[in-house]
Amino acid sequence: MKVLENAPDEQLLIAAAQRDPALFAELYENNFDRVYAFIARRVPSRQDAEDLTAEVFHEALRNLARFEWQGVPFAAWLLGIAGNRLADRWRRAGKHQGVPANDLDEAGTEAKIEENLMLFQLVDDLPSDQRLVICRRFLEQRSLREVARELGRSEGAIKQLQFRALQNLRTRMRSRHV
Amino acid sequence: MSKTSVIDQIDEGIEVLLSRADGEVPVSDPEVTELLALAAELRALPRPDFKAELKADLLEETMSIANTPSAGGNLMTTTMTTAIAKRGRHITSLRPEILPTLAGSEYGLYPVQRSSFMASLVAHAAMLALLVTSGIWAAPNFHEKPRIHSVLVTDLSSYVLPPAPDRAGGGGGGGDSDILQASKGNPPRFSREQIAPPAIIVRSEQPKLPAEPTVVGPPALTFPQTSPIGDPFARVLGPLSNGTGTGGGIGNGDRGGVGPGTGPGVGDGSRGGIGGGPFLPGGGVTAPHLIYDPEPEYSEEARKQKYQGVVVLQVVVGDDGRPRDVRIVRSVGLGLDEKAQEAVRTWRFAPGTMNGRPVAVLVNIQVNFRLY
After folding, report:
1. Reported confidence tier of residue B24, pLDDT bands at 50, 70, 90
2. Which of A26, A59, A166, A177 to mutate: most B Cβ within 10 Å?
3. Of the candidates A160, B15, B129, B346, which lies 20 to 30 Å from B275 by C-alpha distance?
4. Interfacial B residues in 106-135 facing A (CB < 8 Å)
5. Axis-axis angle for helices A24-40, A7-19 (nearest 10)
6. Hey, which CATH number is domain A126-178, 3.40.720.10, 1.10.10.10, 3.40.640.10, 1.20.1250.20?
7. How far apart are the first and last CA of chain A?
8. Are B350 and B331 within 8 A, CB to CB?
9. Per the CB < 8 Å rule, is A167 touching B35?
10. How far is CA B201 from CA B100, B182, B205, B217, in A?
């Protein structure tokens, strides 16, 4: 897992947050995208993803004092909590909702999470007009016409921006993989 | 396939992805497939608002955790010499420092030493004990503060005293300018109001409005009415005369009373009543009310000897509300009597009244000198 790069720093940061819970914000910032991506791939809606992500971080904060550093990254502990929460939710729902319970351990899934993480970060690096179109379309799920009206441009122009944004993301993803 | 059609296919695919939960889009073009796969992942893009809101929630929760006594109880203390910067800065190298918390940069990592904690606790307890017992140390220098309590003993505003048996203060006088002194006798009946002044020699046998002659004073005051009407202060029994005074009545006074005074009362005084001098409260005479009463000073001599006592003063409160004739009735000495007199002379009253008119009233004032 790539998060292991700064393991000594993370160990100290966890120790600091255990003494002063306000420092938990640092751990949150470092791990939010990963936890969210992990959960979002396993639930059908954005609302579910947000609810579960919130539950995971609240539980982590409450149990932070019990965390013992054993060389495992903090993200792994968070993803463990997330897995338990997902399992609970599926159990309560009485069905798997199309996601196998054992996929939490699949290497391919972990790689996919890292890809998603990278993708989310690359969106922030897009040119502003392309980023705006992506956010309006995928975050707010607004139609081309609505986006075009808001930005004062034609639907064709918005389609073009949408296409270029996706191309940009693909290119940058490829370059990161290389 | 032209670029235009690729753009359209992608847009159509995105519309399908956004409207369907499964997100499966049947396309054959590899580029479109690849870009739509990216678009499918973008559906899970986290809302920036959500991230910020959750962070705010967590920060709020950290506040409550920080205020919980057990917070941080299971903590790693072996790495406490490490300097950790706040958010946005990097964790720096490990190195012990002298007073690392002085600059506030290592809060949360500096270990609590048991010995230091105990020393701090003892120091704080000592300071608290010193603070609490400071009153004992300061006691020898205690400067006694006098407490002086003054009471207007004859403040009878809420009830009316029974009248004095033969003396109610005030007075009056009269006469009808006769050349002879008024003849001796008893005054007529006392009444609240006077309609007709008394007369020994009645000048008009057939008055237009017959009325009983009275003098003004407490009705409870009575004189035997068996003897003829006259001036009780006269020295001659006869011949009968209304006296040398003026304004009606009997005697050598003025204004319809009996005797040498002025007014419708009896005797050497004025404005009604009998006995001369000021009125006593009761019998329709109201006591004056204090409206300004600065406290007397404590005499230095009495203070040094820690002397306490009660001074009683008798004071005439004039119809103008000012005290006069301040007389010591009960003395305590050591300069307290004089201090009480000085103060009472500066007092001001709402004067006592009789029949709604202000009159001079004699009152007693009790001044209580106490040391705390």
Report:
1. low
2. A166
3. B346
4. 107-109
5. 120
6. 1.10.10.10
7. 17
8. no
9. yes
10. 116, 10, 10, 22
Residue ranges, CATH 3.30.2420.10, chain B: 146-159+283-371
Cα angle B94, B100, B104 (rounded to 5 degrees) comes to: 115
Cα(A116)–Cα(A121) distance, integer angstroms: 9
Q: How confident is the model over B63-89, as a mean pLDDT?
A: 42
The tens digit of pLDDT for each residue in B302-361 reads 888 888 888 888 888 888 889 988 888 888 888 888 988 898 888 888 888 887 888 888
* CATH number for the domain formed by residue range(s) B146-159+283-371: 3.30.2420.10
Query: From CA A121, how far away is CA A36, in angstroms rounded?
Result: 13
Range scoring the smallest mean pLDDT among A72-81, B253-262, B310-319: B253-262
A61 to B61: CB separation less than 8 angstroms, yes or no: yes
Query: Which is more confidently placed, B123 or A92?
Result: B123
Averaged pLDDT, B282-295 = 80
Q: Which amino acid is at B353?
A: T
B76 part of contact set with chain A, CB < 8 Å = yes
Token pair for A154? 């034609």
B34 touches chain A (CB under 8 A): yes
CB atoms < 10 A from the CB of B363, how many?
23
Most confident of A109-118, B6-15, B109-118: B6-15
CA distance B171 to B262: 7
**Pairwise CB contact (< 8 Å): B38 & A166:** yes
3-class secondary structure, B199: coil
* Six-digit token string for A89: 């939710």
Minimum distance, in Å, between the CA of residue A78 and any CA atom of chain B: 15
Specify the DSSP element, H or E, that contains A81: helix A74-93
Query: Would you put residue B345 in left (φ > 0), alpha (ψ -120 to 50) or beta?
Result: alpha
| pLDDT of B83 strictly over 60 | no
* Contact between A13 and B51 using a beta-carbon 8 Å cutoff: no
- What are the tokens at B155? 């403040």
| Whole-number pLDDT of residue A54 | 92
Fold observed for domain A2-105: Rna Polymerase Sigma Factor; Chain: A (1.10.1740)
Residue among A32, A57, A134 minimizing CB distance to B42 = A134
Q: What is the pLDDT of residue B171?
A: 66
